[in-house]
Amino acid sequence: MRTPPTAVALRQARLHLLEHGDCPPGGLDERVARSWRRSLAAGSLPAGRVPESEHSSGAELLHTMASNHELLAHSRPVMAHLFEQVRHTQGMVILADQRGTLVHTLGHADFLSRAERVALSCGANWHEQQRGTNAIGTALVEASGVEIHGAEHFLERNEFLTCTAVPILSAQAELLGVLDISGDQRSRHPHTLGLVGMASRMIENRLIISTCQRHIRLHVHAQLEGIGSIAEGIVLLSEDGWLVGANRAAMAWFKLSRADLGAVQLNQRLEVPLAELLSRHKRRPGQPTQVRQLDGSGLYVLVQHTLPTCVSVLPQPVSSAPPLRDALHSLDTGDLRWRSAADKVRRVLDKPIPVLIQGESGVGKELFARASHDSGPRKNKAFVAINCAAVPENLIEAELFGYTPGAFTGARREGSVGRLREAQSGTLFLDEIGDMPLGLQARLLRVLQERQVTPLGGGQPVAVDFALICASHHKLREEAAAGRFRNDLYYRINGLTVLLPPLRERTDFVMLTERLLADLSPGHRVSVAPDVLARFCQHNWPGNLRQYANALRTACAMLGTHEDCISWDHLPDDLLEDLQHTLHVPDGVAAGPVPAVPGSPARVQNAAASTTESGNVTLLHNLQALSRQAIHQALDASSGNVSQAARRLGISRQTLYRKLAEAGAGIRA
């Protein structure tokens, strides 16, 4: 751990820089000195402010998070684990993309109010050109891990921070983003740089293993026990033996530079040829083998060779798309688990194989089923859906199988063909089949076995032909084992089972939000404010897509005539309270306080929470009073200029006029 200069030495060095345009020799760490010079050349001044334009709009943040969804997906679990290690410091764990835009943060609520004052929140840009010397921006430029402590920050407003950042690199040594720990300068710890470095390596290794599976992969280490550890090297090889990618450890083992990738073959580093390694792998798969480098040093090598496609983790405008442009493709917003389920279903749509869709309530099982029907050979025929949990038990049999005239009291005079026959040549979708009564399950099983339906009240059996898709939020295998669902029916409907992920586990949350907003407001481009979107991403959403779509629909309805950005002011009170209580982050971690009024000063936002007897933080009941207070302060700060006050509050001028009218004489513009 290096010892930073004293506050006096830093003050003198800063004055020397401003007076002479350069730092005094030997007074600063050389990387800090270079960063100070770059900051001054970019037009920054120590006492200057950051332009408001350096914070992404809601639409821009949506695009940024969508283009980095692989990085986010593999970073979030590592960040949660990292935060557990530094919880006592009451700081933040931050992920920024390759341009310095913050895309994910975890932190203690005690520190977040101070962090928000210097824009340590999602959507803010911390590149050196915007915010001077800081760990995130300087790590991006220097392409190495850095620690910036206290007054080493170029901007005086950031001097209360101590920040440590390490770049995250792809297998091709290209910059993907930066992982950072920031906190109060008094909480500086000697091992933070090493801790962030290890977490960064974990993310890099996860990305390589997950997204580059079409290459031959070598896991290497000088010790046998090192294979599979965070210290192992990972090398990517083409089929003809070219080294096309590597993690940092492998770059060191094989003495590679970035320019060597794609230009060096394996036989230029190891004595054993690739063909021999593959032969050993075939004879003893999963077993490391010992080899020698050309310099005589020994290495243990584990070969991994699979053939799925390789998904790029470099930022892309959109995620890689499936080859088919069908109805399932139109629902695909990039989540790999959802896409895998769709790909599996596509393969059986033209075969007599029933599909069982499992997943929590609200994940979109019926939407998936309908898209499956519309993607298959029966798409021009009927899609008949029946919710087995919604039809009364005494009517569901007649609903499914039909009935003859006069079959029971209240029956229609002409009878009914039933939903099974309505699905003739098309698709029958039985939603929540786990709630079907056991007695009725036996009749359904007979129909599926015999492909004939006999209506209630007698009559001749009628042949039926339909594709069958079932869905349930119950785990039907467990239900069958417990005797609550027939085993024989379970195995009859379980031709292909796919599991749709809950919203909280999807990696395409941002792209999904964009699609939902486009569907909810056609012809009117609506976005979500960055701080609101960040909280949405971290919310648990127990009702999944159904709940989220309803929340967005309500928020869109609350937008004013000239508004196009959903902020806290557009959310219903119950959702605000839920966002305050149930964060999808580790215990004791917060993603920033939920403001009572969008854009209101920090002291007003913090006043918008009070502690209940159970210790939970809740919104104050008197939101109207807080709103008036925030508006009053914004008008005072703007000398009564309504347009400026509206910009300070983050709302349109029309919305501010409406709030002034609602407040009456309590506030005067």
UniProtKB/TrEMBL annotation:
GO terms for biological process: regulation of DNA-templated transcription. One of its GO terms (molecular function) is sequence-specific DNA binding. SMART domains: AAA. The keyword Iron does not apply. Residues 345-557 form the Sigma-54 factor interaction domain. Keywords: ATP-binding, DNA-binding, Nucleotide-binding, Transcription, Transcription regulation. InterPro entries: AAA+_ATPase (IPR003593), AAA_lid_NorR (IPR058031), GAF (IPR003018), GAF-like_dom_sf (IPR029016), Homeodomain-like_sf (IPR009057), HTH_Fis (IPR002197), P-loop_NTPase (IPR027417), Sigma_54_int (IPR002078). This is Sigma-54-dependent Fis family transcriptional regulator. It comes from Rhodoferax fermentans.
